[in-house]
Write a structure and sequence with these properties.
alpha+beta; Immunoglobulin-like; 2 domains; five-stranded mixed sheet; four-stranded mixed sheet; 3 helices; 31% helix; transmembrane
Amino acid sequence: MQQVHINRLGVNSLEFETDTVELPLSPGEERSFEIVLINYGAPTHVNLSVSDSIRENITVLEDNPYVKHEEYIPLIARIPYDGRLYSKGQIYITVGYGSKRQGFNLNLGHQSPNDKSFSVDVDESLYKPAPSKPVRSSKPSSSSMYEGEHWSAQLPSISFEMIRSALGLAAPHSLNIFKAVMILLLVSVLAAIVLSIDFGQFFGFYQSILYSILLTYFMAYLLLRLPKSKR
């Protein structure tokens, strides 16, 4: 029950016995309660309305009563089976043909722990900032780079750098190196063929010395011409 005093402090004044009314309903439950309108002045029409948040939960059986001295206005509150477990809203009282409007809070259902406001005592020591620690550089020093896991982590990169450097140095002379290798392979094949054939019956001792000198001169000539061909 909620009591509303009208015209007690002055014309069209409104006073509520309590600011908040709690109705602990369960889903599917329905309950009626009354608003007692007590008029201390001239008879007047009073209008009752409900806020949008609980409009589907409240039914006002007489929303525009004519109050001479004291009137009991019944209201029906309900929570559907599939409705919200806890709802908050307002019941508004309007007097003076709309010139004065005021309301009180109406809470329906059972409040869950998440909806309740609570405070936690915090130790004052938690307000003090923690002592600052020296910031360590994430970059390993040169002395520790080759110790433990830092050395094993750097090994692949060191190997790749060495191979890359070697290839970079050999790149300008790659053509000359290729030619020299091919010539050496050709000479080796020719020498193997020559050594496998018995030319003793065709050539004498002096002829063999001559051929050897000519072959040596030819190889020296090719080696001397390789650097000039690049120019």
